[in-house]
Structures are given as structure tokens and as C-alpha cells.
Description:
Layout: E1 4-6, E2 10-12, H1 14-37, H2 40-56, H3 60-75, H4 78-103, H5 109-114, H6 118-121, H7 134-137, H8 142-157, H9 161-173, H10 178-192, H11 197-208
Antiparallel strand pairs: 1-2
Helix pairs in contact: 1-2, 1-4, 2-3, 3-4, 8-9, 8-11, 9-10, 10-11
Amino acid sequence: xxxxxxxxxxxxxxxxxxxxxxxxxxxxxxxxxxxxxxxxxxxxxxxxxxxxxxxxxxxxxxxxxxxxxxxxxxxxxxxxxxxxxxxxxxxxxxxxxxxxxxxxxxxxxxxxxxxxxxxxxxxxxxxxxxxxxxxxxxxxxxxxxxxxxxxxxxxxxxxxxxxxxxxxxxxxxxxxxxxxxxxxxxxxxxxxxxxxxxxxxxxxxxxxxx
Length: 210
């Protein structure tokens, strides 16, 4: 049986691809129904299955985002789930479509199977304009993120220590995608370890992208 390489890491055979595409289609329906019915347990189980399944066909970024939804389900973060399920389903459906094209030999793997994850994963080209606009690329409650970054920026510029710490602490309590979590952690370290309020204000401004 012929196999194809995706991202030079995973060997795929047509049967594996067909099985994944079928399972992913069912998972999209289940995620929608679980969200509407408030069945967090079913939602979490389905996200977990897609985390493992997408990794098995080379969809590492899709797997990471499924893990974020799984973690949100386990922690009961309904806001994160509500804000990101539709976007994840759209991403998963795009990934399935690209896998089918790839399996048919009509396109190269990197563009079809990995590139479609850029929208949700925030994996934009770092040389692109506004690459530091974290609010634009974040997966989660972006309204809350923007609000807290603005509070953080203004507090740091005024050297209001209490308000600055409170804003970053509120951000850390939320569930975010890996890129946004790393960004928030960097601000946290800048404040708590370095006490560099000017730099923290600049980082908040960069995240806002204004």
C-alpha cells in the first residue's frame, strides 16, 4: 500500500486518512450538539479524541488547539468553549478538506495540511505587518484580553503597581491558546521578576496592535 509523507514527519496511508476524515466529520457534529446542550463531558471527550486523531495524521497545530478546548472542558471554562468552538470546527473542516486533496495527490502536504491552521493558531509569518498584535490572533475572550491589556498599559505608565499586577493576574486565570499564554507569561515575568513597568507597558501596547 502506498503511503505519503506529510511535513516529512508522518507516514500516511489512504485508509488512515479516510478514517480520520470520517471521524472528524462526526466529531464536528458532536461538538456542536454538545455545545448547544451544555454537555461538557461529551464535549471534552470529543475534543480529546480529536487531539489524538489529528496528531496521528500530522495535524500538530490542530491537535494543540483541540487540547486547549479539552483543557477548557476539564476546567469548566464555558466562556473559552463558547468563544472558540465554532472557529475550531471551521478549522477542522478545512484541515479535513486539505487532507483529502493531499491524499489524492493534487497538492503538496505543507500547504494543504499544515497551512490551514494559521488562522486559529496565530502562526502568522513573524515578518508580516502587526505581527505582535496578540489581540488580533488570540484564541479566547478577545474583548476581555483587550480590556485588561489597556488597563495594564495605563497602570504601568502611571506606575500603579496594584492595578498592573491585578490586570496581569486576571489574564493568567483565563484559558488561552499557547501563543497568547506565552505572551501573558512574558509580561508577568517582566512585572514580577524585573519590575520593568516601562517595558510591560510597551508589551501591552504591542499586544493591542494599535
